[in-house]
Amino acid sequence: MGLGYDGRLFILAFDHRGSFQKKWFGLEGEPSSEDVERITDAKHLVFEGLLKAADEGGDPAETGALVDEQFGGTVPQEAKERGFKLAMPVEKSGQNEFDFEYGDAFGEHIEEFDPDFSKVLVRYNPEGDADMNRRQSERLKRLADWLHEHDRKFLFELLVPAEPHQLESVGGDTDRYDAELRPELMRRTIAELQDQGIEVDVWKIEGVDERSDAEMLAEQTRTGGRDGVVCVLLGRGADDDKVDHWLRQAAPVDGFVGFAIGRSIWGAPLKQFLDGSLDRDAAAEQIGRNYTRFVRVYQDAESAVSA
Questions:
Q1: In this structure, are residues 202 and 5 in contact, taking their beta carbons and an 8 Å threshold?
Q2: Which of 176, 160, 260, 165 is nearest to 217 (CA)?
Q3: In sequence order, which residues have a C-beta less than 8 Å from that of residue 224 and are 6 or more positions away?
């Protein structure tokens, strides 16, 4: 199996675990069995939104569900039955340093669920804690090697949080950090990981404000003969206008093939469902519409350039 991925990917991401139970259910620590049932039901509601989108004409081969084992319930099986692309996380939730959710048994869990993509979320700044970066890289190399030895695809979600000195250099302005510093730091991170032999099929990356930055990142992911490697854009919980802008910068760039967006799609409808202001079917309909709208924004931006 060659490195990379051939095709479009529009992934609905709802693999959040610690943040999900805390933000939407106000729960800290280990959830009770009743809490797990409630959270699992909420996750299924999000998936029902994806089903609505597919029923309205979405292409199953381009439709993806990124969902976790802990609260995913029947969603992984249902997604595969519908012909969707299934992605599942490998990392422990809620910590800054990447480690395996299931320790040395990570491979057994991947083989049990047989996802199309195994996903990690990694916080890595090339000017950050060198020891932590080294530990993360060693684990990531182990995972990447295992996945490719078993003909499996690696989906890598990269976050580059600002170091204090970096934020200070832009006057503490996080928007300036995102615009002025983060793109090059992302490129450097990708290059460092590649140099350490960590081979990724799909990079899930934060949006950038300039098309030239999207081009720079896509070029870095494909350097050294990695011609099949692709990128998808994440939403970071931003509002529609911001996500639309990121999508319009990335969609025309060779090497970008879609998105993996979560809270920006399902956050508001889920909140309304949980507080009783929206019934289940209406919430699923809204999630489906939000997902489909982002797909159209991406496709329109892509076709506008190629026309």
A1: yes
A2: 160
A3: 194
Q: What percentage of the chain has pLDDT greater than the value 90?
A: 91
- Choose between 275 and 57: higher pLDDT: 275
Q: Report the C-alpha gap between 187 and 192 in whole angstroms.
A: 9
DSSP string, the chain: --SS--S-EEEEEE---HHHHHHHH---SSPPHHHHHHHHHHHHHHHHHHHHHHHTT--GGGEEEEE-HHHHTTHHHHHHHTT-EEEEE-BPSS-SS--BTTGGGHHHHHHHH--SEEEEEEE--TTS-HHHHHHHHHHHHHHHHHHHHTT-EEEEEEE-PPPHHHHHHTTT-HHHIIIIIHHHHHHHHHHHHHHTT---SEEEE---SSHHHHHHHHHHHTGGG-TT-EEEEE-TT--HHHHHHHHHHHTTSTTEEEEEE-HHHHHHHHHHHHTTSS-HHHHHHHHHHHHHHHHHHHHHHHHHHH-
Give the global pTM.
Answer: 0.96
Cβ atoms of 89 and 99 closer than 8 Å = no
pLDDT in tens, 177-193: 999 999 999 999 999 99
- Region of 159 please: left (phi>0), alpha (psi -120 to 50) or beta: beta
At residue 226, φ and ψ (nearest 5 deg) are: -85, 55
**CB proximity list for 76: less than 8 A, separation 6 or greater:** 65, 67, 69, 86, 88, 113, 115
